[in-house]
Amino acid sequence: MGEMVRVDHLAEERRKAQFDVSAMKVAWAGSRRELEISDRMARIVASDPRVNEVTVFCVIKIVSFFVEEEASKLRAAVDEPCYMDLHWGMFIPAIKGQGTDEQQKKWLPLAKKMQIIGCYAQTELGHGSNVQGLETTATFDPKSDEFVIHSPTLSSSKWWPGGLGKVSTHAVVYARLITNGEDHGVHGFIVQLRSLDDHSPLPGITIGDIGTKFGNGAYNTMDNGVLQFDNVRIPRDQMLMRISQVTRDGKYMVSNVPRQLVYGTMVFVRQSIVQDASVALSRAVCIAVRYSAVRRQFGSQKGGLESQVIDYKTQQSRLLPLLASAYAFRFVGEWLKWLYTDVTQRLQANDFSTLPEAHACTAGLKSLTTSVTAVARFLMKTVSSLASGEPPVGTASYFARAQHLMQCNCEVHNADDWLKPSVILEAFEARAARMAIACAKNISKTSGLEEGFSEFSIDLVDVAVAHCQLIVVSKFIEKLKQDIPGNGVKEVLQVLCCIYALSLLHKHNGDFLSSGCINPKQASLANEQLRSLYSQVRPNAVALVDSFNYTDHYLNSSLGRYDGNVYPTLYEEAWKDPLNDTVVPDGYQEYIRPLLKQQLTSRAARL
Amino acid sequence: MGEMVRVDHLAEERRKAQFDVSAMKVAWAGSRRELEISDRMARIVASDPRVNEVTVFCVIKIVSFFVEEEASKLRAAVDEPCYMDLHWGMFIPAIKGQGTDEQQKKWLPLAKKMQIIGCYAQTELGHGSNVQGLETTATFDPKSDEFVIHSPTLSSSKWWPGGLGKVSTHAVVYARLITNGEDHGVHGFIVQLRSLDDHSPLPGITIGDIGTKFGNGAYNTMDNGVLQFDNVRIPRDQMLMRISQVTRDGKYMVSNVPRQLVYGTMVFVRQSIVQDASVALSRAVCIAVRYSAVRRQFGSQKGGLESQVIDYKTQQSRLLPLLASAYAFRFVGEWLKWLYTDVTQRLQANDFSTLPEAHACTAGLKSLTTSVTAVARFLMKTVSSLASGEPPVGTASYFARAQHLMQCNCEVHNADDWLKPSVILEAFEARAARMAIACAKNISKTSGLEEGFSEFSIDLVDVAVAHCQLIVVSKFIEKLKQDIPGNGVKEVLQVLCCIYALSLLHKHNGDFLSSGCINPKQASLANEQLRSLYSQVRPNAVALVDSFNYTDHYLNSSLGRYDGNVYPTLYEEAWKDPLNDTVVPDGYQEYIRPLLKQQLTSRAARL
């Protein structure tokens, strides 16, 4: 950790660990090189107060002084959302994915040197996920060879784009393309928003910041914005024309590049969201595990020490599945990163075959509960094409064994059988397949496909969740087939993998039981095994969160300190609060004293 | 609502309602009188900006100008936590419950006139739920006839008490009573903290505020505090002596009043927490239902209006069970209020028979997942005493029919059978009884009771949850047996009751299936019925949240406005943010311009 630690209140916990923590740090980071860079960047951020002073200032340095890999790790270590994320994460990728070669040649160098700063203006006040419902228009004017960008209504105001509120000079704006009075649907346009001389909004453009966001304030460093266009003109060549074109005379032409290419940017964003989720979860788990080891409550024998909270089974049943999930999400995130790179390379070579599945599973994994319709549709399509003999692809390839999965019996006779990866995998595959096929059957009985999708949408969500959980479980199992060096590292990861799978099985045992994938006896054996796995992972808990290699600076938590010195820290922090600058509070004379002395003023009586 | 509404964007929704909203308002409020008072107080708060200006100021008025019932409704309408809650809600009840008659006579008038302000100093930095583990000491000094209150360690500092940080002059302090070198465990003492002349802490007392709280800031109006004692002396008669006494010569004596009396205060607080939970949930649901009716997304036919989000089954499956829960919690809260009053009256008459069950079920209902051990222990005790023929009491009386519940078959053959209250009730009773009895069996096989409780604590939590859910379902069903006036009011409440029960049954179908209370076919019929119930309640959704009778002022939400005029409100609110006071942001010259112009200064290069 590199921090000066006088007393390590968690030393005893660390002595209990049964694996090589430094090797686990490598496994978590992905490679020794990535660990080394992350570690170095985290130290820079922790040691130089200026870096955190002003995010904007720090990001200037990212761009100027670090290579890309270092910059992205430094960005992660700084841990404050800012406009830069949208510039690099969406503005540039959108131009890369949807711009023609000439457009890329013109705009990318400007953007990469940050001579312009861009954002991604898609969402409108009245329109979010349904991109096809956007109202902003881009009408081609053949006289001037320009597009006129316009916000026809209040609800068409762009709303939410990060980086828009205060910083961006440009945006990729999504608007309905209209040529010769015909609406060709939503397309992307590069629009300059602010003067490069004095940063004032260009004529016809109204920009503001949408203000503070609901919640704990973590996103308030981002200048999410609002934007309206009053007939703003841009040259024709600022429409992103890789997928479709408008010619000089206003003719609309579609190239043979599929429209789904637009999803490419979203695939990137979603895979980063999965990565970010694993970081956020691991950070929370790190704090919770350390504090649960420090905190004692109940269970003391006459004046002795109370029990560590982490030793309670109920606490373990909440904490350890989350610890296992942090590792599971980390490994599935790693796989998604590979998937994205693979899809991108294929797209560059005009191979679009893997895009639909990548689109579906990044959407599903992005959240196991929201916007999973894409996954469900993809699965229903997979089920319906089973009859044709067409082999299912990618993460859906288990459907090739649908016949077996529909009738297989779970081979669990005692609790230890639940430790076999093949048994776990088959149970999850059978559950996902049976739920998907049952749902497809129900839909096929309705009057029409869309009606069926609507009527059974709740079940479709459950189907998608089952599929996505299977992906995470199977990627964890695949990871464990690889070489993972370090004493005891693979062993403890195997325990975590089983905890992840069996805690899911417990949580969703209604699915497994009602589809007959397991019987009540097997469900109860799974719980028995889970209890035993909790005991096995318990001595490794603190070392497993140490393996995330987070500095105290990054965790920024009194409860989650590396040295476990929780109480003095909490106590000292409290006294720093400005409320403690005075002993007798402001307002005593005005409000408290008159109350205590029963001298309410006439002012108080006027209500 | 009484507000000036020009255009009602939800008028169409309100026209659809199939019940009498004003009658439902009465059913929600509890009585016409309570509705009238709540409504009046909400208007006072909404119309007089001074009331919200400073909570302290407003509370002065509560005390001075309103009768108690009005004061509590006004407090609810102001909706900001403050020290007053602890003074009235814990300090006074603690003295009432644990003080002798003389102590009550001395302290209650001072407290009720607010000539002193008190808080409840129990929790310590190192000790929360385990009250018996507290470290603060109260050592009797027979020479001076005083107790010496002392904080021997850092972790013994009182930590969290609301009202302590800045306002309270007194506290009920919990400390280990020591007489003649013997530790008699934790007792309550009335301790003066601050001077009544100038509000400065008395000698030997250190007080501070613990600062801002994690989360969305809702609790930052409360002055949660930290407190240390350095050998602070108080007269002997400031120990709360109803339960046990220390005589002039230091003898410790226990009266025949049971120790659980201490729980009386907690029972009160917990029942208020259940009430508050129903308020918080109903408020969130009100905002979510209205916005879901305003918001449209997807599903448009060529340029037509998109579908209202509330019409999606997936949205209904998330929203409507919560709407049903709001009503369910309201009614169970009403029952708990009755229970508390009943227990209190019995306690005054030295009848302690109903306290253990009240303690157990308020703890369980307070949270369906935390601190439910009490419930589980109570249930295990109930199960073990079944053999003795002793009839189980209160909410556990269904155990009298344990034999039947262990073997009964669910009588559901088609989806409509799930509408019968008797069928629902029996399924929930059978599930709770079977889980409790199975758990008791497992525990009986372990080497000792405490080991068993520890080993099966996860199952015990599930048992407690099953029992508490049964309570909520059965209280909802009982409510529907009462007379509920108003056109269609009872009918729509019946639909909500079934939604509440069947959505729980769906969520926990693993419990119901593995214990054989229902079979997979019946689980699927329950889902079918649930889908149909969602459609039935859909047209009433907006009217059902209107029935909470919340003013826009109280909701304080752009999305949840009564008139549904969401987008213009969001838009206007955004522009009020101080960030929009300037068009070109502060920091442009220093940070953004040098970046765009590639003129990074040497200052930036020093990193």
TrEMBL record, chains A, B:
It is found in: Peroxisome. The keyword Oxidoreductase applies. Residues 263-374 form the Acyl-CoA oxidase C-alpha1 domain. Its cofactor is FAD. Keywords: FAD, Fatty acid metabolism, Flavoprotein, Lipid metabolism, Oxidoreductase, Peroxisome. GO terms for molecular function: acyl-CoA oxidase activity; FAD binding; fatty acid binding. SUPFAM superfamilies: Acyl-CoA dehydrogenase C-terminal domain-like, Acyl-CoA dehydrogenase NM domain-like. GO terms for cellular component: peroxisome. InterPro entries: ACOX_C_alpha1, Acyl-CoA_ox_N, Acyl-CoA_Oxase/DH_mid-dom, Acyl-CoA_Oxase/DH_mid-dom_sf, Acyl-CoA_oxidase, Acyl-CoA_oxidase_C, AcylCo_DH-like_C, AcylCoA_DH/ox_N_sf. Residues 421-597 form the Acyl-CoA oxidase C-terminal domain. Residues 71-117 form the Acyl-coenzyme A oxidase N-terminal domain. FAD binds at residues 123, 162. Residues 119-232 form the Acyl-CoA oxidase/dehydrogenase middle domain. GO terms for biological process: fatty acid beta-oxidation using acyl-CoA oxidase; lipid homeostasis; long-chain fatty acid metabolic process. PANTHER family: ELECTRON TRANSPORT OXIDOREDUCTASE (PTHR10909), PEROXISOMAL ACYL-COENZYME A OXIDASE 1 (PTHR10909:SF250). Belongs to the acyl-CoA oxidase family. This is Acyl-coenzyme A oxidase.
